[in-house]
Amino acid sequence: MKILLVDDSKFLRLATERALARAGYDVSSAADGEEAVRTAHANIPDLILLDMMLPKMSGPDVLKALKKDSATAAIPVVVLTGLSQKNADKLHEDGAFAFLEKSTLALDKGSETLLAALAEIIKRLPAASALKVASGQK
């Protein structure tokens, strides 16, 4: 499964990228919003993990851009956030598939919580993506 990880924190991005790769995911990453849109369009990942606080183009703007483009509109986007429920509701309306609360993931203490949460989200992916994951396609 190809995952695009978008986070401007170099430490969190590298640590998360390593953890996802060790867990068997094919991971690419982007450090800002513009790079995220370009990389998603070039690589067409199966899932995008998107931070909301990004330079050059905000997370919400990246989400809207991805959902407006027919090439990337169907890619499930999981928002990494510390935002309020009100903001989460707005992002859901804009096309976010799921949310992971950064504070509860404790990424600075290891990747187990992230990997477990990601596994649960993958189980809920639309049928085409879920079939790809179940068959081991990357």
Question: Your description of this structure?
Answer:
The chain has a single domain, classed as Response regulator (Rossmann fold), CATH 3.40.50.2300. Helices cover 49% and strands 17% of the residues. It contains seven helices and five strands. A five-stranded parallel β-sheet has the order 2-1-3-4-5, sandwiched between helices. The C terminus is likely disordered.
Radius of gyration: 14 Å
Overall geometry: globular
Domains counted in the coordinates: how many?
Answer: 1
Q: Name the helix and strand elements from N-terminus to C-terminus, one letter apiece.
A: EHEHEHEHEHHH
Q: What fold name stands as the CATH topology? A: Rossmann fold
CATH class: Alpha Beta
**Number of E strands:** 5
Instruction: Name the strands of the widest sheet in spatial order.
Output: 2-1-3-4-5
Mean pLDDT: 84
Helix content: 40-55%
What is the CATH superfamily classification? Response regulator
What portion of the residues fall into strands of 2 or more residues?
Answer: 15-25%
Major β-sheet, in short?
5 strands, parallel
**Oligomerization status of the protein chains:** single chain
Count of alpha/pi helices: 7
User: Ranges with pLDDT <50 over ≥5 residues?
Assistant: 128-138
Structural class of the secondary elements? Answer: alpha/beta
Helix-strand blueprint:
Elements: E1 2-6, H1 10-22, E2 26-30, H2 33-43, E3 47-51, H3 59-68, E4 77-81, H4 85-93, E5 98-101, H5 102-105, H6 112-123, H7 127-134
Parallel strand pairs: 1-2, 1-3, 3-4, 4-5
How would you concisely characterize the structure shown here?
The chain has 138 residues and is of the alpha/beta class.
